[in-house]
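step: validate -> pass
step: tokenize input -> pass
step: predict -> running
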Amino acid sequence: MTLRPASEVDTPAAPRLAAVLQQLARIFVGKDETLQLALACLLARGHLLIEDIPGVGKSTLAQALAATLGLNYSRIQFTSDLLPADVLGVSIYDERTQAFRYHAGPIFTSVVLADEINRAPPKTQSALLEAMEERQVSIDGQTRKLPDPFFVIATQNPVEQIGVYPLPESQLDRFLMAIELGYPGPAAERELLASGDRRAKIHETPAVTDPATLAAWQREAAGIYVAPALLDYAQALLAASRGHMGTGTTTGTATRRGLSPRAGLMLLAAARAWALLAGRPMVLPEDVQAVFPAVAGHRLAGGARAGAVQAQALVRSVPLP
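step: predict -> pass
step: emit ->
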């Protein structure tokens, strides 16, 4: 992984973030850009959707992030019979106290892996909506705060597989980014085959940081400067996604639905986090371009994979500021 030396960085977080990426790269081999996107998503206080086939390391990525950042972790296997109470928790009557006692669900952890989320029915999927947006859950008339930081990594099976429920747009919009891991390169795959399952190394992985430091990094990322020209560029990308440029000119990258203003806010948050990882106190156009396919793809027509192709076409069609 190519990282800038500590002497060249401008932000206090950058050297330690470089150490985080280096440790992740020792566990998750050959996917440097994927690791940076996942960490940028967390720094931007977003949630991550991974769409890919089984066996390419989706759960390993979630566990490695949690271990490296010193966060507690839980995994929820989404199935066709999973109930909202299995995610959020349930109140059970206690005969000793003659009252209902709340038993918290696995959602009350800092890193939650929602595995195969689209195998659960829509009612159970919707149990995550308030948690992901408001970072709280409302149960039995009470609102309970979730941990801070709180990060959901959801895995999704390809929609052509049997027994899956398409995620509604309201659910997709809760994810800041959607990515694919893909197969490892030949060298990375050979190293994996020679050294064995990388999940065994996660338990030996020391935490590089702690939740309080991560929260400080998130605040630092939110304060990265975005120049007015970059705001114009982001707005032009939003306009292009809706099938027109600012002047109303039709482009060849028109989609069934365009990006919302909230998607624009998430794009800027992700670009700020990407700039922080690069050790810069301001966002550059290449930061926006680096995160745009992951932020926009699942919000465009055709799903994350087809949408990412459309997003890359949009980047090529919109001139730089």
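step: describe -> The mean pLDDT is 83.
step: cleanup -> pass
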